[in-house]
Amino acid sequence: MAKLYFSYAAMNAGKSTILLQASYNYRERGMNTMLFTSALYAEDGVGLISSRLGVSAEAELYTEETDLFARICDQHAATPISCVFVDEAQFLTAPQVWQLARVADRLGIPVMSFGLRTDFQGKLFPGSSELLAIADVLREVRTICHCGAKATMVVRQDAEGHALTIGDQVSIEKTVYVSLCRRHWEEETGRWPLAGTTHDH
Question: Is 12 annotated as a binding residue?
């Protein structure tokens, strides 16, 4: 039975590289895949999934209004699809996550989604929250903090390199994000040391 997969990580963990490699593996065997990415990352109206290793592939764009089930149904009717890949899955709406679940359940097409778990304030993105709730398979893609520990959090930095603690949840400029372990995230965002204390352990 086809499944809905969610691979999550902090920034710069190689999620897009894994997605592109998996899609390539399908296509190398003569199977068709369908790739989606958020319209927030459109380049001149074109969807592109890019890896830091320099590999990229064109992708369909989705907005909050896109009916993913209908789009995939239409494409599948024209050319059978063996697997659907969704990049930047944190930007999905809750209904869109259910649309992807129906692609697996009703159309029998596996769906592999990749995205961030939490934002720079340590809060779940809506799409990630719904995926964590209903995906069949959850996979953590690991990356490391500057200290060598596993990075699970993300900070957004201003032009001077200071961590921002307020602002919109979505900022598409990737260069302003840094992945950190929970301990250093608390220090960078000013949550530690606690007010009125001087200890650091």
Answer: yes
Is 76 known to sit in a ligand binding site?
no
What are the distances in angstroms from CA 195 to CA 116, 186, 198? 30, 13, 8
Q: What is the DSSP letter of 174?
A: G
- pLDDT tens digits for range 101-155: 999 999 999 999 999 999 989 999 999 999 999 999 999 999 999 999 999 999 9
Please say if 186 is a catalytic residue.
no
Within 10 angstroms of residue 39's Cβ, the number of other Cβ atoms is 17
User: Taking residues 163-178, what's their average pLDDT?
Assistant: 71
Identify the active-site residue in 28, 58, 64, 88.
88
Global pTM value: 0.88
**With bands split at pLDDT 50, 70 and 90, how would you rate the model's confidence at 158?**
confident
DSSP for 87-120 reads SSGGG--HHHHHHHHHHHHHH---EEEEEESB-T
Q: How far apart are CA 195 and CA 89, in angstroms?
A: 36
32 is annotated as contributing to ligand binding: no
d(C-alpha 175, C-alpha 143), whole Å: 16
